[in-house]
Fold this protein.
Amino acid sequence: MKTATESDTTIGLTAGEDQELTLSPQDYSLLTDLYQLTMAACYVGEGLERQQASFELFARRFPENFGYLIAMGLAQALDYLEKFSFSPAQIQALQSTGIFANAPERFWELLATARFTGDVWAVPEGTAVFANEPLLRVDAPLWQAQLVETYLLNTINYQTLIATRSARLRDVAGPQAQLLEFGTRRAFGPQASIWAARAALAAGLDATSNVLAALKLGRKPAGTMAHALVMAIAAGEGSEEGAFAAFHRYFPGAPLLIDTYDTIAAARLLAERVNKGEMRLEGVRLDSGDLVELSRGVRSLLPGVPIFASGDLDEYEIARLKNAGACIDGYGLGTKLVSGAPVNGVYKLVEIDGIPVMKEASGKVTYPGRKQIFRYVENGQVLGDCLGLVTDVVNQSRVPLMQLMVKQGERVVARESLEAIAQRTAASVASLPAETRRLDNPISPVVEISPELEILTQRTKKR
């Protein structure tokens, strides 16, 4: 236990003291893998820490049946770099581990005065990218560029996954469907639930049930009710109708969950009250059973009431429901949106002290040098990309995607609204070929390697 004279900043930095394991922005610099710190200490000892380095973040391959990725998470990455620092308590905690007993004194001096002073180039959030294309590049002193790897991968990999799934869901469901993010209880932790909600909204979903995320993002949270309320109130009132009436006393017109007992019987009961003008009903939700048949039955009884469906839905199930003629106006997306196969983004050194470098390990080859993505677009449609060097000549037929976001540690672009990012996401997906957007065996557009990059690759291999 801490004493009354101890600073709050020391809480959780000694083994065994913090059982809550809560996270705050002040913790972010230590939210890293140990080898980032040990490598940084080694760089200092070898006199390499000030050498200018360039690292690129990209995905070698996609989750199964993904033809594209929607870049997301940059906003949180830039916030992290802006606040990058180490407190005296954090430095003391690192020293107390004994791991760094042989680290040079200069290493501790760097941490004590740490701030990010480099440049960041990235594709804007909501942009569609393909395999081996950098979502982000960091140009900074080697020790800084190394230390920030883990956090950048954490936020960009996860948010890119959620954004891509959300974009696919919107693409399949169509522009008129109401799509709600319900994934908080299945996300990989409290922080992940906030990021999942943000990424989903930025990629085109309409609302989230996560109250904290919604309020932080300036949105109104959305949701209905659970079976527990119906069962709890019905047990006392003696009926499902009594439970509905009780809920509407406090939330007039709110959508009702109608499949606790007999879905069609509940819909028939509600239809009688709606038709008599005794009730206003903004929607009903179905969470189980044969959604095709049940939605048709409910629609026949409540023709003017929106029908929402939930229950382990994904883009494949939504496509099946639509093809089968289900009468569903909106979907609640949870487990399969916020979990599953990850985006396996990596962060690799591509240049050090002006010298291009590459990895040649089997199956993990990287291209050397600082790169740019050039996109061929005709009549609003993506024809393909060219992965080239930043020094390649830009012409009118090729649109460079990576933009300067941070220069010498200072942000040079304004923060974007979720609405602006969602619009970019929608436009990016709409610009892709049909074979790239399909759910089964999609084909990504061709990504060419520029002649200049190919020459540099061969020279680097020979060196």
Remarks:
- Residues 1-11 have pLDDT under 50 and may be disordered.
- DSSP finds 17 helices and 19 strands in the chain.
